[in-house]
Amino acid sequence: MATFDLAQFVEAPSRGLIGACRKRGLLDVADHFGFQVDSSMLKVELQEVVISGLEDLGLLTRQQAASPAEARVNAEPPLATPPPVSPAAPDDRDRLVTAAGDADPADSDEDVTPAEFRLRIEQLRLDAEDRAQHRQLEFEMRKLELEADTKLRLRKLELEHEAVKAEKETSPVSSPPQDSFNISNCMALMPVFRESEVDCYFSAFERIATALNWPRDVWPLLLQCRFTGMLAEASSIANRWEISISGQNVEDTGTHNGQDGRYQKNTSNQKTCHLGLETKPELLWDNWSPGSKFTKVLVLKNIDNKLKKLNIRHPMSNIFSASIPQIVFISPGTTFIIPITFGPQQMVPGSVELPLCAVQHTSQTEFHIKNARNFQTFFEWDCAEPFHLSPERGLLQPEQECPIRVMFHPQEAQMHQQQACCRFGDEGEKANSVTVHLQGEAKYPYLELKHPGSKKEENCLSELHFGSVAVDQSLSKHFDIFNPSSVSVHFSLSPLPAVAMFTSAFYCDVTRGILPPGGSLRASVTYSPTVVDTVSVEYLSLKYNGSINNPQLTLKGKCIGPSVSLLPLVLDFGCVKERGSAVLTVKLINSSPAEAIYQWDIDSGNSVFSILPASGSVAPHSHIKLKAVYRPTQPIAYYRRVACLVLHTDPVFLDLIGTCHSELQRPQKLKPEHLVQYMSHYSYVQTSPFSDNDLQQNVNTQLDQQGVPLPMPEINQNPVILTTPMEDIRQVSTGSVDFFSSSSSSPSSPHVSVVPSELLFNHKIIPSSISPSEFVQYVTVRNYSGGKLRLAWTVAEDSPFSVSPSSFDLDSLTSNSFTVTYAPKQLNTLHGGQLECFVYQEDISDGLRPPLCFTVRVIGHSFQQGKKHFDPSCSLNPSQVVFPGLGGMSCQNVLLQNNSTLPLTFCLSHASNTWRDSLSLLPGCGLIPPGDHQIITIRLLPTEDSPEQGLRLTLQLNAAEFSKELTILSVAEKPHVSLESGSSLYFHPTAVGSTSQSTHHIKNISCLPIQFEWNIPETEQRFIFVKPDAGELHPNETSVQVWTFSPLAEESYTLQPTLNFWPVQSDGSKRWNLTLEVVGRGAKGFIEVENAVVDVGDVLYGSCRKVEIPLVNNSPCFLKFRLSVERIQADVHPSYEQEYDQSAFHLDWETGAITSNSTTLLQSSVRLYKQARYLWAISAQVLNADGTTSSSPQKLCEVQAKGVFPTLQVVGACSGGSVDRLSKGHVWKLLSLDSLNEHLRSAPSSAEVTTKPPINLHISPPIFPTVLLDFSFGSASVYSDPAEFVLMFHNPGSFPVDWAFLFPKDQRTELPGWAETGELSSTELDHMQIQDCKLFTVAPHSGTLLPGQKRAVQFSYSHNVIGTNRLPVVFKLSYGRETLLNFQGVTVEQDKPHLFASNQHAFAPVDVGDCRPPRQMYELYNGGAVQVHYEVDQTVLSQLQMDNFNHPVLSCISPQGEVLPGETATLEWIFSPLELKLYQMDVPIHIHDNDLITVRFEGCGTKTLTQSSSDVSMQREPFPGQVLFLSEDSVLIGDVPVRSQTTRVFFLTNVSHTESALFLWEIPRQKGSDQKVVQIHPERGRLRPEECTLCVLTFSSTDYPTIHQLDLICQVTQEAALVQYHDELQRWEEEKRRQENEFIITDKSASKNQRVLVDEKPQTSPVRKGSLSKYKVLPPISAGSEIYRREETVSFYTNQTRAERRLRREAAKIWRCPQPPRPALLHLRVAAHSFELQDYLKLCPDEYHTCFRNIQAKIGPTSAVPPLFAPSLSSAPGPGKDVVAQILTCMISDILSDPELARSPVTLSSKPRPYQPADMSSTHFSPVPPSPCTPTRPPSTSATLPQHHRLLNEAVAKEGTEITQNTLQPMLAPAYMCEAVLLNTLQNLLTEAVKGQFDLTAHPCIIPPSSYLRSRAKPEEDQ
């Protein structure tokens, strides 16, 4: 067999390769793809796993047939179809594959021959056939049994169900009716079960059963009836199904009992087995409660010998959930655990939160309630507004859910919360109830109208102006409706109601909608005007529930019509021969954006003049050229004025002039000047649309073209009558105006009349026998003039109409009838035209006059009887005409369009024209050619009795029954104005002299545009006025009137202005009016403030502080005021800069206004530029209406502020490293901290204030500070520990302070290239070296301190470079001081002596003449590594003594001595001045050979004694890393007499929470003696974490007056470090003993690998002293590593020698003896000044009794009674321990200062001793001579001492006398012993008080004396 190639299989996997693969290959494939298999699995199992895994990965196509494992599971076919008999059953094939697959060559060496293989296959086939037949027989038997069993169970189920039904019917408890349940019907509806589709079957069954409402208790029986195969066997074990084969459904069938959540069912521990899987038949949960989750596990165990593959689905339930994979493989004998979580739900949710809702809107949500019980229940909801639940009541079946809808309809903007109660149970009781917490938030809605694309912060849109729009055109504009609120809003957009008979010209496409939060909707408004020269005004109102006000949008637009003009206005055809013709052109211009539709009112067929085309249109802003033709027929002069009718506008007129001559007649030529000459005499000239100049210009143009200059005629100046262009049309067409009269006449009295003006030949029917047809009518012409007239009719040859006679002479005041004949030449057609007649005056005495022309309109038809007339197709636009109710004559025009291809005639039906007197149409009849139009002018005089529904005119068409109706609406309407805000206007009370405004609205509610004007009486114009006071109002327009009221006195005003208005078209002679009542009241106003003094507080120096001052107006009127500020300087500083004061206090506004009974905030700012207190006064003045003031300023309040600057203070300092033994005073002097604090407290300069905060150090360099302070780090030998100082900075101000330490590199600024020289000075190089080596470090180097906050800053100097290193560092405070600190550190060689001392020292002032001046101290610090010998040069002191009369002004008591490394030597000096002056002495101090330091000592002589200063800085909190903390780091003893004792107490606290610490006090001794000046008890001890102990300090002054400045050191060692040291030391000693006793002879390399033990003290070698010898002691490892680390940093400046490199290599081989941990040092400063007794009595006479003097100081060594041991204070409460310690310290000081306590030892000494020792002898006390220190009191001064002083001296003298007597007297206890006992007693009491065992503040308890004491006291009283 070929070997298996894994790579080939991976490239192209197939089932064939898997089948041919061996077991080893299958394992390789599974390992390659990461399938979980085991080598113990069978080959067929491996094949199944590999095939399934590749199918899941998509490498193999999933087959429809079942896999081998599924084939085994689903081996049994359904009951309906028995399995076919096959040659090999599935099980046999499995065995065959298994047998063939397991025959691995590795397991068997035998080869099977082909014959044997075929034999085995045949045997297996026969066996399979036998088993198949056997299974078929078993299947048939099993099928018959199941069918019988099913029938029995169905019958049993039906009987049980009927019994239950009968029982329920007989039960007295009423229940809702239920339909009968038929199991047979259910069985017919159930789907067919197939074992291969188990998963889908259960889902389908659940859906069917739920939809048909099958009872759940019947479900298991129905399923059992349908189960087949192995499930039928498994179902016989359990009575109902619990877990599906796929592990999908886990259902609880218990009964829920009330609220305790228990299932009343016993859990069965038995297990069931089906399909080779063993599991529990059911999972039951007990003791559950709704709302919680409970998890149990379902264990599936494969008890078969084959691999099981399970497809598992998650349970489709909200109650049960399981986290399981979809496909699970279970090997034989293994188990699989399925965790199933049961989460029972409550009947209702605990809370329901509704969506955010707008006020007066509605939001809703939905939740479900479920009946978890096994019986039906009724429910009913009880809920209050604004919530509503639906349905409110109902019935729930078991396990039924019901959706509940919650409606939220709030009325107020707030958070609404309600408890909705649901009562459920039986229908009558409903004993149970649950509640649901309903919560909803409501907010006010708000909508805005915005311009499209505008920003949110822009103002809202209030008006949408469309401008001018052409008639019959449309213009659209857009706006946005924006919702800036957080709630959805339902809105409606509708126009406001308009006036009657008002037709809207605007249309909006949005009428309603919903806007989400932050959403917007684009709305479009279209303006479509129809009436020319009208302004349309409408209002859109945006309405929505919950709105405070409804926004309105004003829509405004103007309709414009065509604007037509002619050029030229006069056409002169000249003289033309009879029957000839002439042609001229005229230009028709339209200068409007509207299209102009025109028609010439002339009949070209019956007139000598014609214009072509006679009708048409002119596009906007364009023109057309028309052709005018002149064809005269008679030798006369012709003149006719032709009207050009234009739709929607007034007509224009063209004057046509021409003269005709024949061969026989040559009449005088009519010229344009003749027309101009006679036009000026008549009203016709004024009514013409052109002026005389225009006409003359046209005339001149014509004459210039002909080349004949004509003179300009004169113009008559007589008055004329005005007419309208529409009236001109009527006059021109009827000939009612002429030029025959030289006098002006009215148009109502014409000189020639024509009756009738229209002839209709449409009323007769033409008989068929008449041919040709002729019809005759008559026209009468009357002459009203005083002369003879000649009439000439124009004769058209081809016209069907003719007039006879064609010419006639008509005498004055006569008339003549002319015959008009209609002779149509064509039948069945329409005819029409205008008959033209020219009238001449024969007797002309004043020159040639133009003739008069009139026309007669005629129409007719030639349709025969019975012949159908033409069907008209026409349109009338508009069909409804609205006339404004002006009350006067007005004209409108309409367009009658012939849309047909046939001619159209029209005439006005006289039956419909019932208003002939007020209404007329021009023309009243006419003929419209095909496709042409006719412009009809309507002339109307509205009357008050005009019907509101309008007039209906009927136009008869084509002389038949066809007609068009035209509706005319017109009422003689009067102008009407409404006062929208009422007839009264009220003003709020107004301050006298000021003004107040109020708005009032007026609206034009008529259809007429009106003009209005307010009329205010002259006497009232001083008090009120209005804007605008006049204007124009269009129909439906509202105007906002702003009224202003100005009272002049404190009184009430009632005024009555009048509104006059009239139509715009009228001349204003007739006006209408309305009266408005205006009511107002004058009052007196005043302004106040809430606080008379406004304290701003601290203002940062140079910063700006905003201040708000409330101004109150308690008056009833609105006020305008002006404020003023006056500065009052509280304190003046010499450096005050006057220019900054002008802007120190600034008001944001000086004038303002405030409403009545309200408060406004006055915004102001304070900017101070000096440290001082400011005071300003603010005054106010009420302004009049004109802005002036009539009263003096009134003071409102005072504003005070204090200018402060940011500052920091150093409140604590400690040292460490090489300078850890320096005293606190020495540290403060080294770092110049007193000077630094003083400098920081001083005011900064203006340059410092304007400097930016130290954030970006490179951009904002500091200024050059003038203050330079030394910041010395002391001295030490090279490679010593760094000198470290920790300073505690405190912000004592009220503002945060930004601070920074700026090194030189931080102060560097960017310079341009031309400014850089490229060379550095030596100082700059030194600074760069120091910074690169990081000799000086500050951590942190910058920060921010809040007010009252403290921060520790660590300063460090590394002794790596020998010499004196200096570095300038700027200490910068933002907007504060800048200080230049001179960082200075000294590093000396190890073998060089060095003393570090101050070069200047000041002694305390000393009284001149003091015989015993005090000793004063001066310290020398040895900063080197060797012992230093010093010696004070006495020569200078001797010389000083000689210069002062041999008086030792300055003497050194200890002129020489030795100073150990790191120690401090104290030199005692006595300064004894002779004069009251300042002494300065330079004293050299020699060191070793020739080195010396010179110190300048200063001292001042005084006249009086001075007390010691009490200015001591106290450390109130520990430094970082500090373990033990002293409650007081400075103890001030103060002034005391010599040989006295003073006691102070303080506390030592362990601030660590975890570490214990050991402490040890170093008590210094007095120089030259063993006496300790200071004693501390306890001197050593151990403190547990957070433990506190009481320390007692006893100070004993010496015999000689001295100024003591003592530094006590407390060594603090952590106990853990000490334990670690002992452990390491023990290991080191064990190693040392091992090396001393053991060695290996054969190992030659032992010495190399063995570590060298060194127990000497590590020393460091000097730098650059040549090569190191190998016998020298090596430096310590830790220090050495630090050394080399530092040397690597400075390798640029220092090169390592070879010996040093070798030293570094050998250092790792050395194991040094562990050194004890270096203790941390705490410094306690003790300051005291001892005086002689006489001096002390003079200086402090009242304090002497508080001091205790040791009289027996000279008897011997004082053996004071040791104080009792002070227990620790660990039992004190933790947070209050520090407070208690501070209180006890002050308490003890007060107790010891009590005078009565001081007298107690004296009183005790006078009393007999209460006890007598038995072995009393005289040897106990030896005679003691009087002490030389005992003060001798002069007699003269005894009287001056106080009484208690004299008593004390007498007692002391008496005590000394008694001691010298060697007699047996009762021994008295010494005073010091009494004080010691009393002190210890007080200490014990305080200790107990701290531990809580004793209450110092408790009320004293009085204990009655015993009977023994009372009996003893009585004899004493008798004696």
Describe the structure.
The protein has 1919 residues and is α+β, with helices and mostly antiparallel strands. It is built from 32 helices and 104 strands. Strands 8, 9, 11, 13, 15 and 16 form a six-stranded mixed beta sheet that branches. A hairpin with a 2-residue loop joins β1 (272-274) and β2. The C terminus is likely disordered.
What ranges have pLDDT less than 50 throughout 5 or more consecutive residues? Answer: 65-111, 170-179, 234-268, 683-722, 735-749, 765-773, 1132-1140, 1255-1261, 1657-1695, 1751-1775, 1810-1849, 1851-1866, ...
- Gap between N and C termini, in Å? 142 Å
Structural class: alpha+beta
By DSSP (H or I, 4+ residues per run), the number of helices equals: 32
| Strand-residue proportion | 25-35%
Assign an overall shape: extended
| Cα-based radius of gyration, to the nearest Å | 64 Å
Main sheet: strands, sense, barrel: 6 strands, mixed
Average pLDDT number: 76
What level of helicity do the residues show? 10-25%
Overall strand count: 104
Can you tag this structure with a few keywords?
single chain, 1919 residues, alpha+beta, six-stranded mixed beta sheet, 104 strands, extended, disordered C terminus
Question: How would you briefly describe this protein structure?
Answer:
The protein is an alpha+beta fold and 1919 residues long. It has 32 helices and 104 strands. Helix 3 packs parallel to helix 4, helix 27 (1777-1792) packs antiparallel against helix 31 and helix 28 (1795-1805) crosses helix 31.
